[in-house]
Structures are given as C-alpha cells and as structure tokens.
Amino acid sequence: MSAPSFSSSPTDPPVASAGSPSKPSLDSLSANRLSGHYADYFATPEQLEWYALMAVDKSDNIMSICRDVPHDSILDVGAGDGAVLNRLDRLDFGTRLCAVDISESGLRALKSKAWKHLEEGRPFDGYAIPYPDQSFDLVVLSHVIEHVEHPRILLREAARVGRHVYIEVPLEFNRTNRRLKGDFKIDATGHINFYNPALIRLLIQSSGLNVLRQEVRHFTPKAYTRGRGRKGMLNYWIKETALRLNRGFASTWFNYHCGILCKRESV
C-alpha cells in the first residue's frame, strides 16, 4: 500500500462538508494554554513506553465493545503518538485508519511507527475535525474528553464524521481522588473534567448521542506494578475485588475506566 500522509501544518484548511459546524470561539489564552500543554507531551522515551503499555488495554476495550458494529474505517481523535491505533492496525481491526491530534510531538511519534492500514495523520485544533460528514464507520475518543474544555462541541463533531462513536474516560469522580478535595490545579495528566459512570453517560446523551453499550473496565496489573512492585499489585487486587463484588460501589470509591459505544440520535 502507499505510504500514509502526514499534514505538516495545523493551519491546513479542514476538508469539511457544507453542513460542518464552524469552529468554536475560544479566547486566545485558553487556546494557547491547551496547545502549549501538549506540545511536548510525547517527547520522551519514558512517556512513549507508558503510552504503549496503556494502549494494550485501551485497544482491547475498543475491540471488545465495538466488535459488533462496522469498523472498517476508523478515525482516532486525539490519537497522540498513535499507540492505540497502531495496535488496532497490527491486529487488523479496521482497514482504513486515520488520526488527528493537536500535539506536534504526538504526530511525529505516530509517523515514526510501522503501519499497514494508516491513511493519514493530521493536526487539528482540538474541535473542528477536518473530514466530511459520515466519513468513518467508527470514531474513537480514548481518554480525550477529560482533557477538553468544551467536550460537547467535540462529541457532536465526532458524531458528525462517524456513524458510531466510541468514548473512553477515566472514572476519577470518586471518594478517594485527592484532586477533588481542594482547589483545582492543572497537573501533568492535563485532566480538567472528572467523571463517574452516570456523569459521562449524561454528558454523551446531552450532546445528542444515544448510548448503545457502556462498560466499566479495569486495567491489567502491569499498569499498577510498573515502578511500584508489590504495593502496586496490592492496589490492583483491592480494586479488582471491589469491582467483582459490586461495580457501583467500586466506582464510587476507586478509579476505573469507562468505555461507551454510541451513535447520533436520528433526526
């Protein structure tokens, strides 16, 4: 197959249909802060190693939850370094893959990977997705919505360009999250929105999408033991046991991840 293309400038005009919504009006401070925070988000070997580790469970969740809907063409929105999409590519989950991200370092890392089915990777402004209506079978936003200042704008855009949308977020709105006990401060994760299963479901539904399937998932032990050893494994088993006994109770107290398959409401 021909080599995938990579746009080099985030100012490239979007290839959108006449029905595409205009860009949201964002003040320059918030726009600069957003792009600046992620400029070098994928620049170090340690970061890339971590994203590769987390991509295994994220891609498994996509394949498990989305296996029964068409997925030949997939757009990964907020693809970062492409770790999740690249694993889908290696497992032949999809035959036409595209990616967009706001991070130049992410797109450089994505470009450096070996691909079988990638058509292109493009920069975008975080909201206006540069594709015509209904261009893809499946649009993926895996661990993206928690970073976004205007999540409903991005969710509606995803539903515009895709026939189905898969969303995954961390469930951080719980009783043991120390970040919720004081005033907000941006940290290295870049998370500015916090969800539990009900909140993310309501956000999706209030954006004009129907929820088809929703599941609370837990990452494998490797995510816990990396750099933490036995302490990390103990933390994993406490959370895994709670999840097996009572999923509602568990997500009230601990961080997990929620995958949701949805599609735009019929007009």
Total number of helices: 9
CATH superfamily: Vaccinia Virus protein VP39
Mean pLDDT: 86
Strand content: 15-25%
Q: How many beta-strand elements?
A: 8
Q: Secondary-structure element sequence?
A: EHHEHEHEEHEHEHHHE
User: What would CATH call the architecture?
Assistant: 3-Layer(aba) Sandwich
Spatial sequence of strands, sheet with the most strands: 1-4-3-2-5-6-8-7
Please give the CATH class.
Alpha Beta
Please estimate the helix content.
25-40%
CATH topology: Rossmann fold
Name the poorly predicted regions: 6-29
- Secondary-structure-derived class: alpha/beta
Major β-sheet annotation: 8 strands, mixed
Head-to-tail CA distance between termini: 38 Å
Q: Shape from CA axes?
A: globular
C-alpha Rg, in Å?
Answer: 18 Å
Number of domains: 1
Written overview of the protein:
Helix content is 36%, strand content 20%. The protein is of the alpha/beta class and 267 residues long. Strand 2 (73-77), helix 3 (83-90) and strand 3 form a beta-alpha-beta unit. Helix 2 (45-66) packs across helix 3 and helix 8 (229-245) crosses helix 9 (247-253). The longest helix is centred in the N-terminal third of the chain and has 22 residues, at 45-66.
Give a topology summary.
Layout: E1 5-6, H1 28-37, H2 45-66, E2 73-77, H3 83-90, E3 96-101, H4 104-111, E4 118-123, E5 136-142, H5 151-161, E6 162-171, H6 197-206, E7 209-217, H7 222-225, H8 229-245, H9 247-253, E8 256-264
Parallel strand pairs: 1-4, 2-3, 2-5, 3-4, 5-6
Antiparallel strand pairs: 6-8, 7-8
Helix pairs in contact: 2-3, 8-9
